[in-house]
C-alpha cells in the first residue's frame, strides 16, 4: 500500500499544477502563479517517471 502512495506523488503534483493553471485562467492572472504551475508540472512528471521506474 505504501508503494502505491509513493507512485501517485507525481500524479498529484501534476494535478496541482493543472489546478494552478485553472485558477490563473479563471481568477488571478499572475505570472507567479504560472511559474508555480510550471514547476509543479515539471517536478511531477519527473517524480512520476523516476518513482515508477524504481519502485516495483
Which descriptors would you attach to this protein?
56 residues; mainly alpha
Q: What composes the largest sheet?
A: none
Q: Overall 3D geometry?
A: elongated
Overall structural class, as computed from helix and strand content, comes to mainly alpha
Query: What is the beta-strand fraction?
Result: under 5%
Distance between the termini: 12 Å
Query: What is the C-alpha radius of gyration, as a whole number of Å?
Result: 13 Å
Number of strands: 0
Q: What is the number of helices? A: 3
Query: Topology as H/E string?
Result: HHH
Question: SSE layout and pairings?
Answer:
Layout lengths: L1 H6 L1 H18 L4 H24 L2
Explain what the structure shows:
The protein has helices spanning 2-7, 9-26, 31-54. Helix 2 runs antiparallel to helix 3. The protein is mostly helical and 56 residues long.
Amino acid at each position: 500500500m505504501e508503494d502505491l502512495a509513493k507512485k501517485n506523488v507525481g500524479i498529484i503534483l501534476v494535478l496541482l499544477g493543472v489546478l494552478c493553471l485553472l485558477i490563473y485562467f479563471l481568477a488571478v492572472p499572475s505570472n507567479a502563479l504560472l511559474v508555480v504551475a510550471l514547476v509543479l508540472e515539471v517536478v511531477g512528471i519527473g517524480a512520476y517517471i523516476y518513482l515508477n521506474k524504481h519502485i516495483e
